[in-house]
Amino acid sequence: MAHPRRSPDDHYVTDTSDLQLETELILCKHLPANPESPPPLHRNQHLQFLVKNLVQGFPSRYISQDASQPWLLFWTLQGFSVLGVALDPGNRQKCGLILVSTRFELRLKGRLFHPDGGFGGGPGQQAHLLPTYAAVSALAIVGRPGPGGGWDQIDREKMYEFFMSLKQPDGSFLVSHDAEVDVRGIYCLLVVAHLLDILTPDLLEGTPAFVASCQTYEGGFSCASQPYFSAEADESMILLDGIRPPLGEAHGGYTFCALASWIMLQPYLKLYGQGERRPFVNYRKLMRWLVLLQGSEVELGGFRGRTNKLVDGCYSWWVGGCFALLASQGIGGGYGRDAEPTGETQDEGEWDDVDESVWNKLWLQGYILCAGQHPSGGLRDKPPKPADSYHTLYCLVGLSAAQHSVYLSPARRAHLLAQWQSLPGYKNEELRKTSFLEVLSWTEEEGGSHVLGGSVNRVNATHPIFTLTMTHTEAFMSHFYKQTISRSK
User: Is 278 a catalytic residue?
Assistant: First the structure.
């Protein structure tokens, strides 16, 4: 079988061009003889990799992740969920996880939850937005209501106070006290606020404008933007909206977090953003940038995270997961619908010159199956690198994004709305209701899956915003919003 043509260059040899060539030569060795018959998903090996880490403990090289202990747990537990291993008592015992889940709950509640709200990355560490997301998401998977179940032991009032203590005048948030602003932290905050039903207009004020200001000239998003203020005669400071340059280059991880945050903020904008200058995201530039991040045939169709960088398995999710989010706003195609899309493209006009799908889902599945799987179990950046917990999860959810057509369903929203129960004593009822309906309206299109290699390679669908399964998302939010959801007929 002839090798695909290598990526073009300008014949000026650099360390970067040498590394690109070396990577392409390695990836070519993993090309299947028949592109339509890739290696199967080595499900059992990946399960053994996850079980070993939890039961026997992580290898010593993970000591560098001491401040990411909730992440190690979340990556592993969600990995089981994507692979279809339900963490009910029977399956926990079968997988050897029943003791691990007990240790897990003690670890999160007894050692990592900060007394002032939020979760730390390790015992005795200060609260931080990123491990807070990981801890709450992990509890959504293994926890339950009631005493000792983990859900009702989360102090939502202190969590909200912690969030508000991090808020900045430009609508951004510090990731931790005396730390930096980062759009990844805003994503983590918004997910937790949605899951725990602690959204308020005060929490969200100014945040949409900050998120939009992080979009770069390429179309993707950077980690933050630089605010400028005008000093007034009364010594007050006024934010200059027109001068907020993004800091740094566009990056796949920042872009997913910014776009998912932007989608989560749409109910707030519709309810409270009419009287002010509405922030704007250039969807066309974003779509173009995302599409160009997919590698060529010689790179097996994997995604890179930045322009002129190497492909990496984790961007299967950070970049590949963005397309469903854009489709929910009427941009792009290839996703199911049960009614005409209602997403606004603002003043960019209709997207009418695009194929049904703007990225190659089968190529991405091929990259993960051919290059992402480590022979000993677990998934990786690319060969010859080792497997790790981070890449194992984000390769798996990237595979999920490439297999399933998940979309915002008006029919599902109407079903949820008909069952919504307004409860006395709740403020901001319209915001909490609308946010609840929007994030739970995501639905997998029936018959819309396209699984390369057949059903043996199928993984579970993933909520495109929260990176949890649909089932865990619905159960967790229904509990905190005090709603009962019956199944659609």
Answer: no
Asked if 202 is an active-site residue, the reply is no
Degrees (nearest 5) of the Cα angle 466, 470, 473? 60
Instruction: Tell how many helices (H) and how many strands (E) occur in the chain.
Output: 20, 6
Distance CA 212, CA 282 (A): 9
- What residues contact 472, with CB distance under 8 A and at least 6 apart? 81, 140, 141
Reference 279, options 212, 327, 361; nearest CA is: 212
Question: How far, in Å, CA of 132 to CA of 161, rounded?
Answer: 14
Asked whether 81 and 468 are in contact (CB, 8 A), the reply is yes
Backbone φ and ψ of 241, nearest 5°: -65, -30
**Residue-wise pLDDT tens digits, 244-303:** 888 999 999 999 999 999 999 999 999 987 666 789 999 999 999 999 999 999 999 999
Q: Model-level pTM?
A: 0.91
Question: How many angstroms separate the Cα of 212 from the Cα of each of 187, 203, 286?
Answer: 13, 17, 12
Give me the catalytic one of 167, 382, 388, 395: 388
User: How many residues make up the chain in this entry?
Assistant: 489
